Amino acid sequence: MGPINWLAVVLSANLAIAVGFVWYGPLFGGAPMFGRVTGEQGEKGRGPVSGMLGAVLLQAVSALMLGHNFARLGAETLAVKPWLYWMQTGGIALAFIAPALLISYSRQRLSMREALVDAGFWIVVYLASGTVFWALG
Question: Which of 6, 10, 22, 134, by CA, is between 20 and 30 Å from 69?
Answer without folding.
Answer: 22
